[in-house]
Amino acid sequence: MDLPDIGVDALPDDGEKPGYLHQLRSNQFFAAGFGLGALGAATTALKKLSVVGMGIARRKLFVSVELNSRDPSYEWFLNWMARNVNHTQHLSVSTDLIKHDNGTVTTSFGFLPSTGRHYFRYKRTFMSCERVRETNTLARSGQLWESVVITMLGYNRHKLLELMEEAKFEAVQKIEGRTIVYSAMGHEWRQFGNPLRQRPVSSIYLPSQVSSRVLNDIQEFLSSQEWYVDHGVPYRRGYLFYGEPGSGKTSFIHSLAGAIGYNICVVNLSEKTWTDDRLQYLFANCPDRSILLLEDVDAAFIDRQAEIPRGYTRADAHLLLSYSGLLNALDGVMSSDAQLVFMTTNHKQLLDPALIRPGRVDVQEYFGNAVSEQVISMLKHFFPDVTEEACSIFSSLVPDNSMSMAELQGMFLLHKDDLDSLINAVKELNLNNIDPALIQPGQEYFGNAVSEHVISMLKHFFPDVTEEACSIFSSLVPDNSISMAELQGMFLLHKDDLDSLVNAVNDLNLNQINDSDS
Fold first, then answer.
1. Where is pLDDT greater, at 417 or 308?
2. What CA–CA distance (Å, rounded) separates 288 from 80?
3. Closest CA to 470 of 484, 458, 482, 485
4. What does each C-alpha distance from 460 to 146, 268, 349, 456 come to in angstroms?
5. CA–CA distance, 480 with 75 (Å, rounded to integer)
6. Does the pLDDT of residue 226 top 80, yes or no?
7. CA 343 to CA 361: how far, in whole Å?
8. What is the mean pLDDT of residues 204-210?
9. Which CATH fold topology does 196-367 show?
10. Cα–Cα distance for residue pair 389/510, rounded to 1 Å
């Protein structure tokens, strides 16, 4: 039988079997898979290299800066974008309520860049900004966290600095000559309303020595920071303005803020939401160049021993602001340096001595009712051409401490165009006939109804009344026997019937009461 010719090459040398490597190379499926794996590995490596290369290129060829929503420059830049970048199509609306000097309010709508990426050119340099809004909120304020990342092609970061300086300049120009008022919202300060027009110190009618003394003290303090640091003295200054309602305490603080270029952070301690840690945090984080104003500081506590504000019980004490918390916020370890603190009160006698001791309150100023100097100053301001003789006559009609500055200004505003009308109105008040013993410095006196008041009210309610009827009715109401409120109440009850009014007053028998009192 003939055997098939299998060839010499088909037989293994020396009787050895083929190796695994040879078998794998000869397997077409393995060869194809190996090739694909090598291609995938090469692609992955190239991808990683491209990412690394892009990262290197970004670091070398691009400059980026991030602005977060808690930084003032965040709003500056968005407003700059709204004014200078007009081609972006993705916008969010910003509504501004503009209050004018005459009290009217107008509304304007602005468009800010919305979330996402926006491209623009600044001084021949390509830039992009990406506005991002996170879903989580800020722990203390409850606001959504936002940020803007500005990226510039190139490596000259000075262009970004120029951009931010320009945005800052435009923002400052918008509020130049105005004072921003901040209010505490949660654990942060927020602008309250529109910036107020700065008020000259000369428009506050105070005795000259008071305004000059306080202003000079503030200016000396602001120029002495190095001295405070060198001597290890805390760099802060406290002021207490106390006295009569309507005497100009808060208005003077507003004018002082404008004079030194500061804003105002207002704290109302009578709010029920204050706690020790919130107060200390806000006091330590006031906006730069801001006055800290504590209005009606006497309203915070009933007394130091109780330390429980009105409307709360002792069971709620751990949730509330304590007296020691207020003192520590003013000058404790956590208190802030470079701070101007102003307090106002109408009742200094209710304040605890620990609150107004030196170190917490360095300057105390009394604000009383109108005196001659203030009366003449206001008269010259409203009527610049008034003569010295007219000033002397008018001043004599308003004895010292007989009228608050707010009341006096109210009368000036009612008669701002007619000096004669103003003089006649003040004469009708008959301030000189008030018993001088009843007028104490710092005390305002309002007596009960006198004959002139009674007749004036009678003619107002019954314009056709005769002089004889006026005389008869006036005789039924002796001077100081009834308050103006009581008298007006009777007029309102009988406003349509004079005879009924006369009978009602006659039934009161005020003349006998007056005789028995005397």
1. 417
2. 22
3. 458
4. 63, 41, 41, 6
5. 61
6. yes
7. 9
8. 84
9. Rossmann fold (3.40.50)
10. 43
pLDDT value at 31 more than 90: no
What angle (nearest 5°) sits at the alpha carbon of residue 377, between those of residues 371 and 379? Answer: 100
The per-residue pLDDT for 248 is: 86
Spatial contact of 473 and 458, defined as CB atoms under 8 Å apart: yes
Q: Token pair for residue 402? A: 């007989």
Bridge partners, residue 87, by sequence: none
Q: What is the pLDDT of residue 20?
A: 59
pLDDT at 104 over 70: no
pTM over 0.70: no
Nearest to 204 by CA among 216, 215, 196, 194: 215
Instruction: Parse the chain into domains and list their residue ranges.
Output: 62-176, 196-367, 372-438, 451-517
What DSSP string describes 8-46? STTSPGGGPPPPHHHHHHH-HHHHHHHHHHHHHHHHHHH
In terms of Cα–Cα distance, which of 465, 475, 470, 477 is closest to 455? 470
Q: Which residues of 401-411 are buried (b: 16+ CB within 10 A; e: fewer)?
A: bbbbbeebbeb
Least confident of 222-236, 461-475, 503-517: 503-517
Task: Please name the residue ranges forming H helices in 176-313.
Answer: 208-222, 225-230, 249-260, 276-284
Show the tokens assigned to 3: 């055997």
Predicted local distance difference test score (pLDDT) of residue 441: 43
Whole-angstrom distance, CA of residue 499 vs CA of residue 257: 58
